[in-house]
Amino acid sequence: MSAVLLVLLRSIMPVTLLWAVDVYGRVYSLSTAGQRWERADDLLLELKRVTAGKGRCWGIGCDHHVYLNMMPSEASIRYREETYENQRWNPVDGFTDTLLPTDRWPWSDVTGMNPQPLHSFQLPSRSWEWEGDWFVDQSCGGEPSQTGGWEYAVDFPANFSPDKKWNSCVRRRRWIRYRRYTAQGTWAKIPLDNPKKPPLPLCDISCGGWEMSDQSGRYPYLWGVSQQGQVWFREGIHPRVPEGSGWEEVEVPKEVAQLSAGPGDLLWALLWDGNLFVRTGLSLDSPTGTSWAEVESPGKEVEALHVSVGVSVVWVVTKDYKVWFRRGVNSHNPCGSGWISIGGEMLMVDVGLNDQVWAVGEDRGLYFRIGVTPSEPSGNGWIPVSGQWGNNKEVIPPRENREFSGQLTEASQASVLSCTDSDSELGPVEPQNITSNTPVLEAQAPSVVPLGATDSPPPPQEADETPSASQKDAPKPFIPASDSFINSLVSDRDRTAASQPSIAELPQQESKELLPAPILLTPEAAGHDVPWMNVDLEGAEAARSAQAAGASLGDSSAAATYALGTLEDSQGVGEEDGPVWTWISGGGCDVDGGSQISWLSPTGPLTSSLSLTPVQSAAWSDQQQQQEHREEISKKPLERSNSVWVRKGMLRWWRDWKPQRWVDVGVALEQSTRSDGRKDSIFFVYYTQYDEKKYLHVFINEVTVLVPVLRDCHYAFAVYTPERTKQRWPLVLAAQTEKDMEDWLSLLSDCCCECRGISGPPSRQALWSTTSKGDVMVHDPAFSLEAAAHTMACDLMFWRQVPGHLHCVESNSLGLVWGIGWDGTAWVYSGPGSGDAAQMQQQTDVRSVHVYENQRWNPMTGYTDKGLPTDRPMWSDESGLKECTKGNTHPPSPQWSWVSEWAVDFNVPGGTDKEGWQYAADFPTTFHGHKTMKDFVRRRRWARKCKITVRGPWQQVPPIRLSDISLMPCLAQSRMDQVPVWALSDKGDVLCRLGVSQQNPAGSSWLHVGTDQPFKSISIGGANQVWAIAKDGAVFYRGSVSPQNPAGECWYHIPSPLRQTLRQLSVGRTSVFAVDENSNLWYRQGLTPSYPQGSAWELISNNVTKVSVGPLDQVWIIADGVPGFPSETPGAVCHRLGVGPMQPKGQSWDYGIGGGWEHISVRGNSSEPPRGPQALPGGPSRSPAAQRSPAPQQSPAPQRPPAQVNGSAVVV
To answer: Could you tell me the pTM of the whole model?
Structure first.
């Protein structure tokens, strides 16, 4: 069944080729539908390197010529040559080729500017042949002609037609001849001297650019680098002209050593100094680009050795053979944003189709990067390319028929990397029982994996390690490398192996303790020495000892050996040997993460955190133990190295500069994971402005809040950073559906929390807040938030969203959190702190949407909807600045749905008449509910209810609807059996909740507290201080409240500030702050334990809508606006700085996140900063920018009036 499926897959998938070159310059191809390496038909062909594209492969020969191999196809490649025969009429001879001196050539191109006689056409190379002789095109304009192909006109260059007229003085006809490309499937030499000046000998080429056109794969580009460091571009490559027409030099400021072109518009070049160049401005209109940008090498001390690019990825190998991945690469950002180290030791890498990665390992084996997907472009492991070789079915792993005994280890530092340099000589060893099973790659490192029946391999026995004299004198065959450039770079490698002592010189005790490493063993039948490649002397010592031990232990120890391959078999160096690779190109090999390729099917990947040596490519020698170890290893987690994960998508971006509008953009979240598990992420936004590709980026560890916003009925959210918070310039994005927005918000929020080390539910000390949209936000504070010195700046606070929808929320430091919905429903947080795990429950909320109907009075018709030209719209919002009709008014966001029809709202501040009208002298003065002689305008409010349903960790507390709630704040070390909770019903009744505790946060019942009028705000502070504000603005203090008497005894009236009506207050440990109807903030002076009512009110600031005083008397507010930013949506979180026992009123304001925040509660934050001169520890919200001193913005408060002294409190 599997065989049939494989045949079906091969019939569906196109057959593509993987190309590789060995050190002798021999070129091989491996088909995705086959299993065997095939050598090029031309046995004399020697190439230094190749570069493949869709349907073709280019190469550089040892003769410095460029070669092309076009894949065979059903349709032949034909090119039509054409020229025009031109004639003019004269009275004597009629139409002849005798033209006027000002006429075009007798034989020319279609424009007549260039002469093209028939004999001037030559075949561009030997790869072409003529299909026939020249013939006349008998059609004119695509239609058959009876004039022998002639077209007539009055003169050159007028419009030609097949009809001959009396004034037709000139004529022309087209001659055609076809030539056919005959070199498909073979390597054809491209002449360098035709037709333009050839470049100097090339040392590198790269094919790419075929995805820039609409017809993908049809128009590839070819770039070249000369030996003098010049960059050349091959012009004229076309489906009908696969060789191109000529070379064009591209100016480059520095000498280039190697370059790589991607399928799209990416081109990177490697300089001789080890740095990198990026070509910018590549497009169809400008295929050679516009400028160069320099990028530093990944390692500061190690230069780059090789670079390869794909559609949106860049891979680099440095001279220490470490592999690096470039983050953030995109056509909008071709330079990328940073380097990520990827495990493995490679000589070169090549990025092929679908951004798949191929490599030549340090051991000269071929490798493939598994797990490369659009979401994880860095992949997660290396596996060998195991194609069959020769006439047998022997599979080529990185090396063949090698033995190794011991444990999987990292590569030894003594490995010799050059093909031509080797100072070690070793005599033959007696062969062991070596199995020929196919190698199985196991992802186990660096942990020790025992291979024998016991937990550890047996100790090696002593063996004769001194090479014979004949072996010392035997010459070593030389294996040439086909690329002098690679040799020159490899020679820069620090050859630590050459200076190491031989095996015979090493002490026996030391040699036993050395870790095993790769070794090449020569079969006894060879009878001669072989050239050593990647020989490790320590590995040879360990392998010999293991062989000696294996001889004494017999079959029981045979399971503890690896069957590894040698560089050369017993037949010596020749064509029958396994190739020693030096170059690979996968640009034409169409594979991806899900491809079923027979030679890419290991049972386990190599971990990318290890050096890629033959040790890691080992195979089990015993089939039974092989299966056991597979099962054992499969239970262990795969060890990963640095990797990159990418999530891409399409969103809309609000471009907040003129012309302001929504723009479709591409977005990408790129997250890199280091080998130690640490992660960092970058969020990219790609857009196009005036046909120029641009991008924005945000570092996730700098994001301070992700908050949904109300924008034109879009599923929108805003991204804030400290800098964007200061500038009041959030990054606003919108999704097409609610699910897309929630997915992106969840993904980004998880990455933010992960970068900051935040996990789990909010802490007991958390600050809670709600937005005008109803979203619940929380901040886990650090000690430095309320520190007297080095206070954390407000714009550095990290806010995360808690599922749910509330109008206001209150908390205390025992972990109790209560909230009130827009419809007055009471909710209690059911997360940790209540004794149970957080439970997601369905939560609904209902709110009203309002529009105002406006009218003006005139003597003829009375009140009508005909206003003055300067009046507000007759249907508007409350401010009158925006036109809002019943028809064009929608719910606050797409998550809401209407649940009622429009109706007149009679519950309006100031009252209404029986029809719901409010009257005033003019817009926009204060409205009242009765008509007078001076009232010329009126308005009434229409309301419509909408509903939202979400899920969150909130438990409903029925049945009374509330308008305000307060929990008594306490210090972190406090213990209370019963937590006092006071609230106001939606009708203004005062309530006290009984039975509230950490085990029962919802409490048991409500206790009604009598009043003589309805209240609108209430707060309980330290020591059971209960303050409240009546609906008429009167202030009251509740006396005798205690744990034994939770409802208290009586209300004491506190005079309000002069000519001011208070609307909201908050009580801390020893201070009381209140906000009046004019958004002024007041402080109550003179509070003492003996006189808790205080003595006078003092004005602190204006521009305040809500205030929250914490258990440490810290003061936070919701500011109505931020000075200097009048266009920002009202509602900004603001912190009072300088608050202390000697300065309870504070000194200045520090503005934080803003743009639509409704409520804040700091009554749970009782984290006191440590005392002393030592530095304060940073919390999860800290970032490097937090070390700076805050620069708070002063509130534009008026000059403070003298303190207002109040009379004695009275009992009511």
So the answer is: 0.70
Last residue of a domain, one of 159, 181, 203: 181
Q: How far is CA 1035 from CA 673, 1046, 1056, in A?
A: 57, 20, 6
CA-nearest of 380, 820, 288, 294 to 607 is 380
| Statement to judge: residues 63 and 102 lie in one domain | no
3-state secondary structure of 141: coil
Element (H, E) at 32: none
Measure the CA–CA gap between 1054 and 1069, rounded to whole angstroms: 19
Tokens of 1095: 């003595």
Instruction: Classify residue 653: in a domain, yes or no.
Output: no
Is the pLDDT at 6 greater than 90? The verdict is: no
Answer for the pair 1212, 1051: CB distance below 8 angstroms, yes or no.
Answer: yes
DSSP string, 1124-1180: TBTTSPS-EEEEEES--SS-TT-SEEEEEEESSEEEEE-TT---PPPPSSSPPPP-T
| Pair 944, 971 in one domain | no
Report DSSP letters for 880-919, one per residue. SSSB--TTT---SSTT-EE-S--EEE---TT---TTSEEE
Query: What H or E segment, with its residue span, contains residue 538?
Result: helix 537-553
Is 701 within 8 Å of 798 (Cβ atoms)? no
Alpha-carbon distance of 307 to 336, in angstroms, equals 14
Is the same domain home to 121 and 257?
A: no
Q: How confident is the model at residue 1204 (pLDDT cuts 50, 70, 90)?
A: very low
What average pLDDT score do residues 747-774 get? Answer: 91
Mark whether 1136 and 1001 lie in a shared domain: yes
Name the pLDDT band for 837 (thresholds 50, 70, 90). very low
Residue 484, in any domain of the structure: no
Going along 690-816, which residue ranges are E strands? 692-699, 705-711, 714-720, 731-735, 767-771, 776-779, 800-802, 808-811
- 168 and 240 co-located in one domain: no
For residue 818, name the pLDDT band (cuts at 50, 70, 90). Answer: very high
1177 closest CA partner among 795, 762, 767, 785: 785
For residue 937, the enclosing domain spans 845-950
**DSSP codes joined into one string, 950-1007:** EEESEEEE-S--EEEEEE----TT---SS--EEEEETTS-EEEEES--SS-TT-SEEE
The answer as to whether 940 is a domain residue is yes
Structure tokens at 29: 């191809």
- Please name which of 213, 216, 235, 204 lies closest in space to residue 353, comparing C-alpha atoms: 216
* Average per-residue pLDDT for the chain: 77
* Alpha-carbon dihedral sign for residues 744, 749, 755, 757: negative
Domain co-membership, 244 together with 157 = no
CA distances (Å), origin 1080, targets 88, 794, 814, 1056, 1074: 96, 21, 31, 13, 8
Q: Per residue in 1063-1088, pLDDT tens?
A: 999 999 999 999 999 999 999 999 88
Residue whose structure tokens are 């305040």: 1104
Is residue 634 assigned to a domain?
Answer: no
CA-wise closest residue to 224 among 333, 61, 334 = 61
| Pair (858, 918) in one structural domain | yes
Spell out the residues 6+ positions from residue 830 whose beta carbon is closer than 8 angstroms to its own.
Answer: 836, 838, 839, 841, 953, 954, 955, 1001
What total of structural domains would you count in the chain?
Answer: 4
Tokens 């472009």 -> residue:
377
- CA–centroid distance for 816 within its chain: 38
* Cβ atoms within 10 Å of 915's Cβ, excluding its own: 9
Asked whether 166 and 154 are in contact (CB, 8 A), the reply is no
Report d(CA 82, CA 624) in Å as an integer.
71
Distance of CA 1071 to the CA centre of its chain: 48
CATH number of domain containing 352: 2.130.10.30
Last residue of a domain, one of 155, 181, 207: 181
In the structure, what pLDDT confidence band is assigned to residue 1003 with cuts at 50, 70 and 90? Answer: very high
1072 and 1037 in a single domain? The answer is: yes
